[in-house]
Structure formats: structure tokens, C-alpha cells
Design goal:
This protein is mainly β. It has a domain of 51 residues. A 3-stranded antiparallel β-sheet has the order 2-1-6, with no helix packed on it. Strands 3-4-5 form a 3-stranded antiparallel β-sheet, with no helix packed on it. Strand 4 and strand 5 form a beta hairpin. The structure holds zinc ion (ZN). The site of zinc ion has 8 residues, from loops.
């Protein structure tokens, strides 16, 4: 079989977030996060801050830039 366009399984989707309490930045997979359904706002994901244990809300990262150069990954 040949993959024409590669998709991303839900659990492999990557999110980033910044802790509002201590400014720690994290990147995590959806499978590592808690997924919440909100009737008004749709779904959102959260993880526990590894530094101060506050809740960090994730923003989904689009994968296309990562596949090529990795420039958009905020590793620095
Ligand atoms: Zn924190």
C-alpha cells in the first residue's frame, strides 16, 4: 500500500501550552493529556504542569511544518 497523504491518529496529535502560573512551556501528545468536552466551547485538552502542578491548556500544533524543517517547533 502507498500512503498518498499521511494523517495523524488522534492520540498522536501534538499540543503545546504555557503554564499561566509559572510560564513553563510544554509540548505533549493528546494521548498524554486529559480531553474535556465543553458544550459551549467545544473540546479542550489539558495537562498538569510538571513544575508547579497547575493546569496547562494545550493548543494543537499543525504538523506540516514539523515534517519538513522543524523550524516551527519551539524547542529553543
Ligand atoms: Zn507551572
Amino acid at each position: 500500500m502507498e500512503i498518498i497523504k499521511r494523517g495523524v491518529p488522534p492520540g498522536e496529535r501534538v499540543y503545546t501550552g504555557v503554564c499561566r502560573n509559572c510560564s513553563t512551556e510544554v509540548r505533549f501528545k493528546r494521548s498524554e493529556a486529559e480531553v474535556h468536552e465543553d458544550q459551549r466551547d467545544g473540546e479542550f485538552v489539558s495537562v498538569c504542569c510538571p513544575v508547579c502542578h497547575s493546569l496547562i491548556y494545550g493548543t494543537e500544533q499543525k504538523m506540516k511544518s514539523a515534517l519538513f524543517s522543524g523550524q516551527d517547533w519551539r524547542d529553543r
